[in-house]
Design goal:
The complex is a heterotrimer.
Chain A: H1 18-22, H2 27-55, H3 73-109, H4 117-136, H5 153-156, H6 161-188, H7 201-233, H8 246-280, H9 287-301, H10 316-328, H11 330-344, H12 353-376, H13 378-384, H14 388-418, E1 420-421, H15 424-450, H16 465-495, E2 497-498
Antiparallel strand pairs in A: 1-2
Chain B: E1 5-6, E2 11-12, H1 22-57, H2 59-66, H3 71-96, H4 100-130, H5 154-187, H6 197-222
Antiparallel strand pairs in B: 1-2
Helix pairs in contact in B: 1-2, 1-5, 1-6, 2-5, 3-4, 3-6, 4-5, 5-6
Chain C: H1 19-42, H2 48-68, H3 76-100, H4 132-144, H5 148-151, H6 177-186, H7 200-211, H8 223-228, H9 252-261
Helix pairs in contact in C: 1-2, 4-7, 6-7
The chains are: A mainly alpha, B mainly alpha, C mainly alpha.
Chain lengths: 540, 224, 262
């Protein structure tokens, strides 16, 4: 591996050649590969979503009539399974940590690379292998268990589940290795002067995310492995005829999958933590509390999984305990939301695209979070479980939260990654479209769900029609917005104005490297002399 | 970037460029290894949780089933693994003192132990199969229902027994493979006081494998 | 010039495990293994066995972790990480247990829950024969138990698979009074329920009422068939008044409670 690249080169053009990308050990290149892969699978999962929304535009359609997409409930179930599996495992979980984090983290720390570059490349190829296998099952008949693979259906009857379970297992290890790598990097590869209290909060959030990845994902791996195994050998611990328990599967599954949603949202919060100070030209309010809140959220996330199981058959004692503890996660989350608002207060706000997405995030994340508290209330969840209320809640936090933050981060770090500037007007327009479209899509779903429309249903009663119609129209708006974003970003890649190293005048360390950075990140070894958000005394 | 001659044939180790020294690389690798082992704890945890849950629920059946296990063989395996942990620690001390013969000798002992463990395990497994106590419906084997007609949940015990010891044995096999690799590198003189990172990391892994068995043995064989 | 942050707890000395310490730890582990086996197999601490075995195992684990794995001489960070694994394992176990171990013991919904309500409800003289009173009672029961939702208010079935009482064909168990009672006792799969909450007297009443829909004469019955459903036609009360009728009923609160638990 070279230790200094020729002057004038960037990581994009040195070393040269396709093969150098295939075997690269450079975190920036790996990050970019993740970025393109994640965006590709986002497109695939998005197509599934659009098809589902088209199906749900009108109730009780007969196959062959306009608007009827799926020939039967089974086909619809497969679509929703692929939408879920692709979006959860292939898109939202790796989206910010692997795609953005890989690129940005070492730069923010002042390091030359992550701690274990070969493991990093292995992570990427594990991800790709699992992703290809998962999508392959589509062409082998398709899986229709839902992304949650509940037993006994996933053991006894579902088709092709074994291959998909294997794919998820493989992707799990990609996630674990990434987390492991980041933990070691953050501990060991900080530049001189980069003390713990000078770390950007994006780093703190990646750190907490990595801990969750390392602790929770192995349980998922083993659990899905057990289901696959049970399919092959015919008996297992989830089989009641043997004295086993299908609810045990749910405990095991959600022990991972609840912390998993925090793997999704914590990096998103991290991006917002970095974006808001830059575009309000103010230090973040309550840095230490923010860092502590990140860990508070991560910690609580491990002991609340039973709130996905209020109506599964777990005892009311367990339900009570999980409901109570779940309420606690609102506290550190509230600390963060109020701190963001306090940061904005009396700041000098610049309404560039990253900031617009951050504002969008604040609005939709609060809605998503509050509706989460509603669902955590056991008594209410009994009514709302498996309705569209839940669907709306998690899309508000995952799409509204993670995806908006991803867009904020993508636009914020785009000049650093590619050395180009995108068209700001186009960015604002597509942000607007996405925001409006998003709310149109999911706000009516809260109402439909509360009125009783069940989720994962192929058809619905006519009284829910208006909500579904609005929702479908909204989804097209979102799709259009993302398509626009794709267009102007690709255009910017080739024809955008050249960016200097710090177009946003940010104080975090990655902006001291060139845009795009050379292979070794910094031509001279960086030394950190100030905090990440020390915006003081700036003129408006 | 520094490199010092290590081992008897003076093979140099170049640490990776993003570390400032071999020591820095070692410490980072160690942290990474510990985090990996945390992950391994959680990987096994689901099976342990399942075992604890079902043991409490079906106490009598599990107890009857565990009487079928040969605790003497289990104890022998426990001793074998403890010996192997000791010899691995000796191999690492040898490296730290620059004693290549010590490394090689102790690695051989460790390999012999891991082999011995697997031999005992296969004797146990085949005995179970022979008595129809293999709970899975593969390879044409069938569960011997009459053996535990009064205690139907014994089958669940055996499912967990095979899953837990099987997963553990898989880790032993991987460990054995790693020791072979280490032996070859040690023979080439790659390890010495300035560089023995792979030995240390594999040693940590192997102690973890021992740890799991320290819990498996009493849980399955003695108080199951 | 040091390129990286020196704040991080770096190990500048690698601890070497001395032969003496190593040997001691090794012997300790062998000894503890010996103790484990002795306490489990050759002593009788009863239910403490499990706890003792786990404690000894933990002691062995601690020795391996501290000395062989070197945690005693390692950085706090590494120690924290490894031990946190066990912490989360504990949380996983305890909270899953909170559900699994608080499950009530499985019980069939009969036995002590079911109240015996002998002597309640009307009784009739010679209930195995129709009379104005028993017919009136049967008519009331027909509506109370929603029979008409499948069999129609006039006995003509609304549900295609239900019996048409006006016709004499297709009665799976037979059309005699005792056989109608038999159907009410056992149901007919898949759609006809059994009615364990009705007393035998009530079932007889319904049987008599059902006959009224059909113009054809009621087929003759016999004592064997009646005895099969617990009626004794040689006695005036049908053997029903004196018998303790185990009418299977369940208090509503209990039913709601079990439902909510599930």
């Amino acid at each position: 591996m070279e230790h200094s690249s020729p002057a004038g080169t960037t990581y994009l053009n040195y070393p040269k050649g396709l093969w150098s990308w295939v075997v690269t050990l450079d975190h920036k290149r790996i990050g970019i590969m993740y970025l393109f892969s994640v965006l590709f699978f986002f497109f695939v999962g998005g197509v599934a979503a659009i098809l589902m929304r088209m199906e749900l535009f009108k109730p009780e359609l007969v196959y062959g009539s306009p608007g009827q997409i799926f020939k039967d409930a089974g086909a619809y179930n497969r679509a929703l399974t692929y939408h879920g599996v692709i979006m959860v495992f292939l898109v939202i979980i790796p989206m910010i940590p692997a795609a953005i984090g890989n690129f940005v983290l070492p730069l923010q720390l002042g390091a030359k690379d992550v701690a274990f570059p070969r493991m990093n490349l292995a992570s990427y190829y594990l991800y790709l292998t699992g992703a290809v296998l998962a999508v392959l099952t589509m062409f082998l008949g398709g899986v229709d268990t839902g992304w949650t693979f509940y037993t006994p259906y996933s053991v006894d009857r579902a088709t092709n589940a074994t291959l998909m379970l294997t794919a998820a297992f493989i992707i799990g290890f990609s996630s674990i290795f990434t987390g492991l790598n980041f933990i070691a990097t953050i501990h060991k590869l900080r530049a001189p002067g980069q003390s713990w209290d000078r770390l950007p909060l994006f780093v703190w959030s990646i750190y907490a995310t990595s801990i969750i990845q390392v602790l929770a994902t192995p349980v998922l791996g083993l659990t899905l492995g057990l289901v696959a195994f049970e399919r092959i050998v015919g008996v297992g611990i989830f089989n009641p005829a043997m004295g086993g328990d299908p609810i045990l599967f749910q405990h095991f599954f959600w022990f991972y999958s609840h912390p998993a949603v925090y793997i999704m949202i914590l990096p998103a919060m991290g991006v917002i933590n970095d974006v808001i100070p830059v575009f309000s030209r103010k230090p973040i309010f309550g840095y230490k509390a923010m860092a502590a809140a990140i860990f508070g959220i991560a910690l609580v996330s491990f002991v609340v999984w039973g709130h996905h199981m209020f109506v599964s058959g777990q005892t009311s004692l367990a339900g009570f305990i999980f409901s109570l503890i779940t309420m606690f996660v609102a506290i550190p989350t509230g600390v963060k939301v109020f701190s963001w608002v306090a940061t904005l207060y009396k700041g000098s706000i610049h309404f560039d695209a990253p900031m617009l997405y951050a504002f969008g995030f604040l609005f939709v994340f609060v809605i998503g979070g509050l509706t989460g508290v509603v669902l955590a209330t056991m008594a209410l969840d009994i009514h709302l479980h498996d309705t569209y209320y839940v669907v709306a809640h998690f899309h508000y936090v995952m799409v509204g939260g993670t995806l908006f933050a991803f867009m904020a981060g993508l636009h914020y770090w785009f000049p650093k990654m590619f050395g180009k500037l995108y068209n700001e007007a186009a960015a604002k327009l597509s942000c607007f479209l996405i925001f409006i479209g998003f709310n149109l899509t999911f706000m009516p779903q809260f109402i439909a769900g509360q009125l009783g429309m069940p989720r994962r249903y192929f058809n619905y009663k006519p009284e829910f029609t208006i909500y579904n119609e609005i929702s479908t129209i909204g989804s097209f708006c979102v799709g259009l917005g993302f398509f626009m974003a794709l267009c102007y970003l690709v255009y910017a890649l080739f024809y955008g104005k050249k960016a200097n190293s710090n177009p946003w005048r940010s104080l975090t360390l990655e902006w001291e490297a060139a845009s795009p950075p050379p292979l070794e990140n910094f031509r001279t070894d960086p030394v950190v002399t100030h905090g990440p958000y020390d915006y003081v005394g700036e003129k408006v | 970037m520094s490199s010092k001659p290590t081992g008897t044939s003076g093979v140099e180790h170049h640490h990776a460029h993003h570390f400032r020294s071999a020591g820095h690389e070692f410490d980072t690798a160690k942290l990474g290894m510990w985090v990996f082992m945390v992950q391994e704890i959680l990987f096994f945890s689901a099976l342990f949780v399942a075992f604890f849950i079902f043991r409490q629920k079906y106490y009598v059946d599990f107890h009857e089933a565990s009487l079928e296990l040969d605790w003497i063989m289990g104890a022998v395996n426990t001793v074998i693994l403890i010996v192997s942990s000791f010899t691995v620690a000796r191999a690492i001390s040898s490296a730290q003192k620059g004693n290549t013969e010590g490394i090689l000798e102790n690695l051989i002992y460790t390999l012999l132990c891991s082999g011995g463990f697997l031999v005992v395990k296969s004797i146990e497994y085949s005995s179970k199969v022979h008595h129809g106590l293999f709970p899975f419906e593969i390879f044409g084997l069938k569960w011997n229902v009459e053996a535990f007609a009064e205690h139907p949940q014994a089958r669940l015990f055996f499912i967990l027994y095979f899953l837990m010891t099987g997963l553990h044995a898989l880790h032993v096999v991987v460990g054995a493979g790693l020791f072979v690799w280490l032996y070859r590198r040690a023979k080439r003189g790659e390890f010495g006081p300035a560089y023995y990172t792979p030995l240390e990391m594999t040693g940590l892994y192997w102690h973890f494998v021992d740890l799991v068995w320290i819990y498996l043995f009493p849980l399955l064989y003695l108080v199951g | 010039m040091s390129q990286y942050n020196e704040n991080e707890e770096d190990q500048h000395e690698h601890h070497i495990l001395s032969n003496k310490t190593g040997m001691r730890v090794f012997l300790l582990l062998l000894f503890l293994t010996f103790i484990t086996v002795i306490t489990a197999k050759f002593t009788h601490f009863g239910s403490f066995n499990f706890l003792i075995a786990m404690l000894i195992a933990t002691a062995k684990a601690a020795a391996v972790m501290a000395y062989f794995m070197g945690l005693k001489y390692d950085t706090t960070v590494n120690r924290l990480y490894f031990l946190s694994g066990f912490l989360f394992l504990g949380a996983f176990l305890i909270l899953t247990g909170a559900d699994m171990w608080s499950r009530p013991p499985e019980m069939r919904v009969t036995g002590p829950v079911i109240k015996v309500v002998a002597g309640q409800g009307p009784s009739f003289n010679r209930p195995f024969e129709p009379s104005a009173e028993i017919l009136a009672h049967g008519k009331k029961l027909y509506i109370e138990n929603a029979c008409q939702t499948c069999h129609g208010e006039d006995g003509v079935n609304i549900l295609p698979q239900a019996r048409n009482f006006k016709k004499s064909e297709g009665w799976k168990n037979g059309r005699r009074t005792s056989e109608i009672v038999y159907t009410l006792v056992n149901g007919i799969a898949p759609l006809m329920n059994a009615y364990p909450t009705l007393s035998t007297t009530d079932k007889l009443a319904l049987a008599h009422y059902v006959h009224t829909f059909n113009p054809d004469p009621v087929p003759a019955d016999d004592a064997e068939s009646f005895k099969r459903v617990g009626v004794d036609p040689t006695k005036d009360d049908g053997g029903l008044a004196a018998a303790v009728e185990a009418r299977e009923t369940m208090p509503v609160d209990f039913a709601v409670e079990r439902y909510m638990e599930k």
